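Hello again, I could really use a second opinion on something today. I've been staring at a protein lately and its backbone has me curious. Please have a think about how the structure follows from the sequence. I owe you a coffee for this, so here goes:
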Amino acid sequence: MAFTSTALQYSSTSYLQSWVPSLEGKLDHNSCCVRVRSYKPTSQGLHQQNFARGLTIMSATTKPAKSPAEEEWKVKRELLLQKRVKSVEPKEALRLQKENKFVILDVRPEAEFKEAHPPDAINVQVYRLIKEWTAWDIARRAAFAFFGIFSGTEENPEFIKSVGEKLNKDSKIIVACSAGGTMKPTQNLPQGQQSRSLIAAYLLVLNGYNNVFHLEGGLYKWFKEDLPSVSDSEE
């Protein structure tokens, strides 16, 4: 068995883990090392080897300083609970949107938003396609390409500014992404499960937004329950 190590941004690791079951990641302030497990056939069958080979990208000298979005999930979750960020199911979110003037903030990539979204939702992506060409960005592109992914993402540095251009800090906001994540503990996930919408909610409360809710089950559940949706071509 061969291990291949690559350095990836945190958000990319969780995305890749959803596609590559044998992907293992470890995050520190400067890099995220990911190892891929593969088996090498021998005359005696499949043989497991424990040595590293292939692409290794360590970026301590080029990666920017740790951002709030890269904070440990445990820290994010504690602040979200402290600030009383409430998770709501899709039907409750729809009711709040209609009756209490809540705004659904869809933080998915723009292309996903254009395909389908709740009526009157606004889109500010919390992650975007990698744009720059610094040594760190080239390293991340290479890491993504190694796994056959040619549209890697990075944190959107304009996220808070863009939200501020559309919503004030007293706006009633329900943050939504595809999967939703959860703050609820389970036996397998005692800290719940991080998601793009929970990262976005954390950034919002960290920057003084006072009425932030979170869409439990995400837009996947919204669409599955056949709640109202539109595409850009219909608006």
